Amino acid sequence: MTSMAGGFIVGSASSVYFYSYDETSDQVLYDSQFRFTSRIETEHTQGVMLNIAMSPNEEKVCAITSDNQLLEFPITSPQSLVSADLAYAVCPFHGPKSITGMDTCVLKPLFITICKDNTLRVWNFQTHTPDLTKVFLEDMYSVAMHPTGMHCAVGFTDKLRLYHILVDDLRLCMELPIKGCKQAQFSDGGNVIAAANGNSINVYDFHTGEKLADLRGHNSKVRDYQRINIDVDV
Q1: Rounded to whole angstroms, how far apart are CA atoms 38 and 74?
Q2: Which positions ≥6 away from 20 have C-beta within 8 Å?
Q3: Which range has the top average pLDDT, 93-97, 103-107, 229-233?
Q4: Rounded Cα–Cα distance for residues 213 and 185 (Å)
């Protein structure tokens, strides 16, 4: 809740309520002193509004939600506000659950993240906005971005799936038989992809899906690895 000129604002689960204040009414009778004026709803949050604050010039209000979203809306004319006026202040962020994977692109100002809220996001760090948001119905275990920024690999419970990154969606282009892949990485040139498969590392040709190598040596599951700049003939 916060005050504004001539009244106050209340934030709830997915709505904002505006109340006006009548100074001419009897101050003892609060029912007649405060009057509900308008209400706007939003689909930008699945949580509740934890705090709202007004800008110094009293032209804009920002709200923080329980699912880690930052929303804003103008208040120059509360009675004329519509749902579209309640928008993201910067961009939509991941929800309250933790980010479980991230990778960067070599040739474009992009990086990719996955979260336990089952969302995958491709971010542009020059414009500070997400270029793509994809919601899956199952958990993701790992993510890797192709050096060109045009493809990505995502580890699911049953398979490692490779996608084309389109303007507003992902399109499946290949599936590799690796269950619960916790780590995956493209080569610098992007022609091969290495993926952790239990206590081994499988190397595949990115263009054909052919397995090029099955690297063994660890006694337990591979948990992490880092790409290094070495030219090797597989």
Answers
A1: 14
A2: 6, 7, 34, 35, 37
A3: 103-107
A4: 14
CA–CA gap between residue 154 and residue 144 (Å, rounded):
7
Taking the C-alpha atoms of residue 161 and residue 144, their distance in angstroms, rounded to an integer, is 10
Residue 25 phi/psi, 5-degree rounding, is -80, 160
pLDDT band at 134 (very low <50, low <70, confident <90, very high): very high
Locus of tokens 């010039």:
57
159 to each of 133, 147, 202, 206, how far by Cα in Å? 21, 22, 13, 15
Number of Cβ within a 10 Å radius of residue 140: 21
If pLDDT is split at 50, 70 and 90, which confidence band does 150 have? very high
pTM of the predicted protein model: 0.68
> Bigger pLDDT: 57 or 111?
111
Domains of the chain: 2-88 (no CATH), 99-216 (2.130.10.10)
The amino acid at residue 68 is N
CA 205 → CA 69, 94, 180, 186, distances in Å? 40, 32, 20, 10
- CA-based nearest residue to 134, from 107, 148, 152, 147: 152
